[in-house]
Amino acid sequence: MSAVAFRGKLAENLRFGHILEISGKAKNNAESFRISLKSSKHDQYVGLQIVVIFHDDKFFLKNCLNGEWSDEVPRNFDTSVFKSDFKIYIAMGEENFHISINKSHLEYYKYRKHPSLMTIVEIDGDLDYIRQLDHRKYFPYLWPPSQAVEWQRLQFSAEIPMSFRAGHVIKVAMTLHGNANGTFVTRLRNIRDMEREEFHMSVRFGCNALVRNAKNMRKEDHYIFGEEERSGNFPFTDFSQAFVLAFAFTDKELKVAKDGKLLFAFHWRTFDVLPLIAGLKLDASDDVKIVVSQLEHIQMEDDLCREFEHFSVL
């Protein structure tokens, strides 16, 4: 098995009523990949591991408790579906994981320990990319309320199962491929209206511009963008270089850092906006491809996120 392709730290521990939606695509010549739900505090606890073996058309589940792996029980499965964009759903029931692939239920898998120990999602193997790690809630109520995903340009989605609060930081590591004169975009959409964007950051390599805005001004039946903010230097000098962005949420503003330095602070244009945001959405245009390798949620004790910039160091 190859090195870790993606590592995510969830915003909240898994528990009954939660669901993970994981999307990605395997390489055309893939041999295997695996998805592990792990504890951040106990290295020898893996609550669930999904393993896909292509040459045997096998899919199996296992777990590890105190360093001791459970028996592997393979299931026959048409693994070719993973060589196109796939979606795996892992729902937390009262006693079992409920696992579906491309909306078809596949398997139940009984907990060996309570899922609340698990906060890490680790994915390794022969994958082109991971496109989605949405952590949502289906019980006792649906969160976020609006869960539609627009896949036409969207290249990464990372929703969380509760409201944001001041002190929250999201760390995202990524690499860009394709057209070095293209554009990639980060959005924070409103949970009540997916057309409304409370934050929109456009990184435009063709003109070396880092543009910030919000799409929250009503005009007839639609929303339009307000005034652009462009102050500051352009910090993306090498298109192909891997980098980390850190997004720090406070009551009054969103602060963004790269390479350990603050890029800008964007003053929210909607009052009390944090409860209305579901999570990051990344997309691109002009043949730019985004490959995200790490997503980490951190809750700081400081509501103003002072010194959060160190989370943006690669």
UniProtKB/TrEMBL annotation:
Record keywords, A-Z: Lectin
Q: Which InterPro entries match?
A: ConA-like_dom_sf, Galectin-like, Galectin_CRD
| PROSITE patterns cross-referenced by the UniProt entry | GALECTIN
UniProt keyword ATP-binding, yes or no: no
* Pfam families associated with the record: Gal-bind_lectin
Listed GO molecular functions?
carbohydrate binding; galactoside binding
Membrane-crossing residue ranges in chain numbering: none
Q: Domain named Galectin: which ranges?
A: 6-136, 156-301
Q: Does the keyword S-adenosyl-L-methionine apply?
A: no
Q: What is this protein identified as? A: Galectin
